[in-house]
Specification:
This protein is of the alpha+beta class and 139 residues long. It contains 4 helices and 5 strands, in the order H-H-E-E-E-E-E-H-H. It has helices at residues 2-16, 20-33, 91-119, 121-134; strands at 38-45, 51-52, 57-65, 75-80, 83-86. Strands 1, 2, 3, 4 and 5 form a 5-stranded antiparallel β-sheet that branches. The chain starts with a helix and ends in a 5-residue tail after the last helix. The relative contact order is 0.09.
Length: 139
């Protein structure tokens, strides 16, 4: 009975905590909302590997309404340590910041594969081969 109570208590505490990723995502979205004509209409979306709280880096897309009340369509953005670049803006800055996201994804992929090497080397080798064929990572 004590074990059940401990597990339930642990789950309640764990569920009540906000992850570092969620806190950082809120910081990113708050900063981007300041640049929008209609912040209340904002819709955000991210890929599975687009949030890097430890690097203060995020890549994603935002859609919001313009002055005429119509949605503009999703626009890509990069948040880099407080600086925001939109794909529709300064291309050089956007590409530079986007490259940081790409590099972060590559490092994260390699770290995941290195961890997988320890538990399932065969699966790690297969994934490396697939990634090399698509140009995503090299080892």
């Amino acid at each position: 009975m004590r074990k059940v109570i401990c597990v339930v208590g642990f789950l309640l505490v764990a569920c009540g905590q906000t992850s570092q990723e969620e806190i950082f995502k809120k910081e990113v979205e708050t900063a981007i909302l300041l640049d929008l004509k209609d912040p209340d209409s904002a819709q955000f979306r991210y890929g599975p590997y687009d949030i890097f709280p430890e690097l203060k880096l995020a890549c994603g897309e935002v859609n919001s309404k313009n002055s005429f009340g119509g949605y503009t369509g999703f626009q890509r953005f990069v948040f880099d340590n407080g600086s925001i670049a939109f794909q529709e803006g300064d291309t050089d800055v956007f590409v530079s910041q986007l490259n940081k996201c790409t590099d972060a994804v590559k490092r994260q992929t390699e770290q995941t594969l290195n961890n997988l090497d320890k538990t399932d080397p065969e699966a790690a080798a297969k994934l490396r081969t697939e990634n090399e064929q698509t140009g995503e990572t090299k080892k």
